[in-house]
């Protein structure tokens, strides 16, 4: 109903009307209340009431619980502060954050952001936060544990559907009138796999075959029992030993692997002649190279073997020859007596991946083979260089006489040995290269490990010929694509060898050595006299295994 003109005039002159207030002996302020109080002690009022602080020269409005400063032309905005200096963006907000589900506990995945702001006019700062989009699956909760300190907890239970999402997180600092803001971006990553490095006491064939003598921390190899979690980048395994890979989801990765090289001789102690007297190629056999793209299955264990480099051969006077290498590299005997100072090297171990873990025997290991790069054969300086690992086949040990070098492993059989005047050597077999007893004399260099290992060199009066390289392998399976394997070029130290130009290659993986030609450098560095301490032998570098998630 429309009010009459008389009614409206009467109301204006009423007790609570505007004209009624103006007719008072001391007119009541209309719109604002002037006060000499500062902003902090203005008291309380009805919602919407304004007051002017004469000493601060600021206008405030009561919001029902507190006084909000009304923006004026002379009011300065809050500024971010860092240790007393003005900053554009707080340090805590100057980077993006990724919730990493590889971390072990929820608490370790929370992110704490600490900011500080100051008001140039001295008014207190209140902090708050918001997110964009406001509804998301990345952030579970945000709590302000103290002024300017925010604890952000991720939502890791939502699954990988949010793996590609991002959230803009903003912190606001207000002086009651003006606001300073700073923001950062949150994302989340889900681990594709975890790799467990096994110590010396692992079960199954690899553990029982090599046992406690193969403490994987020896030879400068560290990290026994380490766990390696996927962080979305390339993972490099460059320490010899046994690893178990356990996928937390189905994923695909490019794999690149290099077998370890065999070693060659080291004179060890003074004697008559050196290993280079014959003027032959005195290198050890190089490791092979294999690559593929492979699809991994969630919760399925895979075993990765990184081959150990072959140990240097011994000179006259040593009681034992070089031991086996982890990954199937064969051992060799000691130098014969009678003034001959001619040692020979052990074969290098294979590098590869196998389906499952803790295999009962070598047949089970062989059947579980997925991808293998063969190890190089052990050389013997006076007689020639070890054969290189495969590839489809390992190469035969290079020797001055065709009767001296052991043969490389193939896709169906271990490399044969060569016969000599002192009897035959030892052929390679499944996974392992041919070996000779370490206290024996008149023996050849050890064969390299592989899908099928290389054979030892022949036996003769000068201690025998070089060993053959082990073969590589690629399983014919739908999970394996874009694959290939190559045999290293024999004795090629300086030139390109398959896989050595790949960006993931390094640490001279799979590269052999020249004859050391030393009469002082004993290849055994341990403290015992029987030279049976496997960790006390000088070796060439191990193989290498690269995992590149795609």
Summarize the structure.
This protein is mainly beta and 550 residues long. It has three domains: 5-70, YefM-like fold (3-Layer(aba) Sandwich); 79-189, Immunoglobulin-like, CATH 2.60.40.10; 191-550, no CATH class.
Task: Describe this structure as you would to a colleague.
With 550 residues, the protein is mainly β. It has three domains: 5-70, YefM-like fold; 79-189, Immunoglobulins (Immunoglobulin-like, Sandwich); 191-550, no CATH class. Helices cover 5% and strands 26% of the residues. It has a seven-stranded antiparallel β-sheet with strand order 16-15-18-21-22-23-26. The protein has a five-stranded antiparallel β-sheet with strand order 17-28-19-20-27, with no helix packed on it. Strands 1-2-3-4 form a four-stranded mixed β-sheet, with no helix packed on it. The longest helix is centred in the N-terminal third of the chain and has 8 residues, at 5-12. The radius of gyration is 38 Å and the shape is elongated. The protein starts with a helix and ends with a strand. Mean pLDDT is 81; it is low at 26-31, 217-222 and 268-281.
Which key terms come to mind for this protein?
550 residues, mainly beta, Immunoglobulin-like, 3 domains, 7-stranded antiparallel beta sheet, 5-stranded antiparallel beta sheet, 5 helices, 28 strands, elongated
Write the layout of secondary structure elements.
Blueprint: H1 5-12, H2 18-22, E1 32-35, E2 50-53, E3 58-62, E4 67-70, E5 79-82, E6 85-86, E7 97-100, H3 106-109, E8 111-114, E9 117-118, E10 126-132, E11 139-146, E12 149-154, E13 167-174, E14 179-189, E15 193-197, H4 204-210, E16 227-229, E17 235-237, E18 241-247, E19 251-258, E20 289-296, E21 302-306, E22 351-355, H5 362-367, E23 369-373, E24 430-431, E25 450-452, E26 473-474, E27 480-486, E28 544-549
Parallel strand pairs: 1-2, 7-14
Antiparallel strand pairs: 2-3, 3-4, 5-6, 5-9, 8-12, 10-13, 11-12, 13-14, 15-16, 15-18, 17-28, 18-21, 19-20, 19-28, 20-27, 21-22, 22-23, 23-26, 24-25
């Amino acid at each position: 109903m429309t009010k009459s003109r008389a009614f409206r005039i009467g109301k204006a002159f009423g007790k609570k009307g505007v004209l009624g207030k103006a007719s008072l002996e001391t007119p009541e302020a209309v719109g604002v209340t002037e006060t000499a109080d500062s902003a902090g002690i203005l008291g309380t009022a009805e919602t919407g009431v304004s007051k002017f602080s004469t000493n601060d020269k600021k206008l405030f409005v009561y919001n029902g619980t507190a006084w909000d400063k009304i923006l004026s032309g002379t009011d300065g905005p809050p500024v971010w502060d860092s240790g007393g200096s003005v900053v554009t963006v707080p340090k805590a907000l100057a980077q993006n954050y990724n919730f990493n589900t590889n971390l072990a506990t929820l608490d370790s995945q929370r992110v704490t952001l600490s900011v500080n702001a100051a008001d140039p006019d001295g008014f207190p700062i209140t902090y708050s936060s918001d997110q964009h989009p406001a509804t998301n699956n990345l952030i579970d909760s945000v709590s302000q544990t103290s002024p300017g300190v925010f604890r952000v907890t991720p939502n890791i239970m939502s699954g990988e559907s949010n793996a590609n999402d991002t959230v803009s997180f903003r912190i606001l600092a207000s002086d009651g009138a003006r606001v300073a803001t700073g923001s950062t971006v949150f994302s989340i990553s889900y681990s594709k796999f975890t790799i467990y490095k096994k110590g010396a006491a692992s079960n199954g064939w690899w553990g029982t075959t090599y046992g406690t003598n193969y403490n994987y921390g020896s030879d400068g190899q560290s990290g026994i029992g380490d766990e390696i979690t996927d962080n979305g980048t390339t993972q490099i395994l460059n320490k010899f030993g046994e690893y178990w890979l356990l996928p937390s989801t189905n994923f695909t990765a490019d794999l690149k692997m290099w077998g370890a090289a065999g070693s060659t001789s080291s004179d060890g102690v003074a004697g008559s002649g050196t290993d280079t007297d014959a003027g032959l190629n005195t290198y050890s056999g190089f490791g092979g190279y294999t690559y593929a793209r492979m699809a991994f299955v969630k919760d399925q264990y895979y075993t990765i073997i990184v081959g150990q480099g072959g140990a240097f051969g011994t000179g006259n006077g040593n009681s034992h020859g070089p031991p086996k290498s982890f990954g199937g590299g064969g051992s060799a005997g000691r130098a014969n007596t009678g003034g001959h100072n001619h040692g020979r090297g052990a074969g290098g171990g294979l590098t590869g991946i196998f389906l499952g873990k803790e295999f009962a025997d070598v047949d089970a290991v062989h059947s579980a083979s997925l991808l293998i790069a063969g190890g190089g054969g052990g050389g013997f300086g006076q007689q020639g260089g070890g054969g290189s690992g495969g590839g489809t086949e390992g190469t035969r040990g290079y020797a001055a006489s065709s009767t001296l070098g052991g043969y490389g492993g193939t896709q169906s059989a271990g490399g044969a040995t060569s016969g000599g005047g002192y009897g035959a050597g030892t052929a390679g077999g499944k996974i392992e290269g041919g070996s000779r007893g370490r206290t024996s004399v008149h023996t050849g260099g050890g064969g390299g490990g592989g899908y099928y290992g290389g054979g030892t060199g022949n036996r003769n009066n000068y201690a025998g010929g070089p060993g053959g390289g082990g073969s590589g392998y690629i399983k014919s399976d739908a999970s394996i694509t874009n694959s290939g394997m190559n045999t290293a070029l024999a004795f090629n130290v300086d030139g390109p060898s398959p896989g050595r130009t790949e960006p993931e290659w390094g640490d001279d993986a799979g590269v052999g050595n020249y004859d050391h030609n030393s009469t002082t450098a004993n290849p055994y560095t341990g403290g015992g006299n029987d030279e049976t301490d496997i960790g006390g032998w000088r070796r060439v570098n191990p193989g290498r295994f690269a995992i590149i998630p795609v």
